[in-house]
Each structure stands twice: as C-alpha cells, then as structure tokens.
Specification:
pyridine nucleotide biosynthesis; ATP binding; single chain; globular; 213 residues; Rossmann fold; binds nicotinate mononucleotide; Probable nicotinate-nucleotide adenylyltransferase; binds adenosine-5'-triphosphate
C-alpha cells in the first residue's frame, strides 16, 4: 500500500512506500532477516498484537543483519516469501530499510519516526535478541527512542533475563501483567512476556534444505 502521508514531500522528507495507519496507532516493528520466514514469526506477531495491545505489526525485512557474517537470500525472495506466509489484516510486510538505506536499527527507527511522526512505534524481538542487544549499534539510544516488547523463545529465557541490557535497564521493565500498556509508556520501557513457545528457526529450516539461496 502506498504512503498515506502525501504531505511527506512537502515537509522536505522522502516519501516511502509504507503500510497504511491512522494517527496515534501503536505499531509493533518486528525486524528480521526472515531467511526464510516461518510460523514462529507469525506466532509471535499475533501474540504481540494481543499482549502489547498493538494496532498493527510491521515485519521489517532487513537487507542484512549487521552482526551476521553471511548475507541472506535476496531481499525480493524473502519479501515474497513473507507476503505468501502472512495473511493477517493487521500484520504487514515492509522493505523500509532498503528504501531508507538503513541497516542498523537505531538509524531505521530514527528514519521511521521522521517519516511517520504520528505513529507510536514499539520495537519487538525474540528473547535471543535481548540476550545480545548490548552488541547492537547505539543500543542505549534505541532504548531511549521506543518501548521494547520481548517475546519468550525456547532456550533463551534465562540468557535474556540475565543479559547486560536487562540488568542495566531493570528500572525500566514493565511487569508482564501490565504488558498491554507498553505502547503507552515513555521510553525507556521494556516488557518481557511469557507466551506459548514455538521451537522453530530459520537456521533449522535452512539446515533441512527447506530454503535455498
Ligand atoms: N520461534 C521464535 N520464537 C520467538 N521469537 C522468534 C522466533 N523466531 C524468530 N523470532 C524472533 O523474530 C525476529 C526475527 O527473527 P529472524 O528472522 O532472525 O528468524 P530466526 O529464526 O531467529 O533466524 P536465524 O535462525 O537465521 O537466526 C527476531 O527478533 C527473533 O528473535
Ligand atoms: O542495529 C544493530 O546493530 C543490529 C544488530 C543485530 C540485529 N539487528 C536487527 O535485529 C533484527 C533481527 O535480526 P535477525 O537477523 O536476528 O533477524 C533485524 O531487524 C536486524 O537488523 C540490529
């Protein structure tokens, strides 16, 4: 769907092809390589909509994770696979990072907030990403910029909870009983939710040969 803020050009900013949203909607951003996308991505997106009280979830399909040595399959292939897999009226797929020329999440969020000042973004991630979040570029800036929703992932609960980011920002952790108001919190704010877990990963699918580059 095309950009719904025709005035973007008039503000002197770039116009992007982004999903439609109404002002003040709470939008969860699930950044990922999606190499390939799988049922776990759909599952945590549905859980995030419910548990964090979100209006939409956007899958931000990354041109390439800056921390991963090997590049993923071509973006067009991953975008097409995401669109085929996810059939949900409130979950949308976007190649915003390729459009904006950003690869690091801190830059992506700054560009998105500039492009969509009326939206309330929440960054989403599986517990494995919280465990290594302190290795991300400008991760404290990300913490200051948007609330963060973390979803349980098999084998990752303890490493996430003991991670440097979790310990340093313990003061900003929202109790999981209050998860539905996460998107209304002033950052820094983050919340870990114990959702039913799905033991599936892109790595496993690639190893099984279910996805070729
Ligand atoms: N089964 C799952 N349970 C919880 N979170 C998940 C699951 N699968 C993916 N995620 C989360 O979704 C986001 C995007 O994941 P990504 O596209 O890297 O898939 P992946 O299965 O983790 O891939 P890979 O195995 O190649 O690392 C990340 O925040 C990741 O933590
Ligand atoms: O900004 C960073 O330094 C950074 C480092 C590692 C991962 N990320 C982002 O985290 C998201 C999940 O990555 P991945 O490869 O685990 O799917 C994806 O949007 C990446 O761009 C971002």
């Amino acid at each position: 769907m095309l950009d719904n803020e025709g005035a973007a050009g008039e503000r002197g900013t770039m116009t992007f092809d982004l999903p439609y949203h109404s002002p003040n909607q709470r939008i969860g951003l699930l950044g990922g390589s999606y190499d390939p996308p799988h049922a776990g991505h759909v599952h945590i997106s549905r859980e995030a909509l419910k548990r964090f009280g979100l209006d939409q979830v956007w899958w931000l399909v990354s041109p390439g994770n800056p921390l991963k040595k090997h590049g993923p399959a071509p973006l067009v292939k991953r975008m097409a696979a995401c669109r085929t897999l996810v059939r949900h009226p409130r979950i949308h797929v976007s190649d915003f990072e390729a459009q904006a020329g950003t690869r690091y999440t801190a830059q992506t969020l700054a560009a998105l907030q500039k492009a969509r000042p009326a939206a309330q973004f929440v960054w989403l991630m599986g517990a494995d990403n919280l465990a290594q979040f302190d290795q991300w570029q400008d991760w404290r800036q990300i913490m200051k910029c948007v609330p963060i929703g973390v979803l349980a992932r098999p084998g990752q609960r303890i490493s996430a909870r003991m991670s440097k980011a979790a310990r340093m920002y313990d003061f900003a952790r929202l109790d999981m009983r209050d998860s539905r108001v996460l998107g209304h919190q002033q950052p820094p704010a983050w919340c870990f939710v114990n959702v039913p877990m799905m033991d599936i990963s892109s790595t496993h699918l690639r190893q099984k040969g279910a996805w070729t580059q």
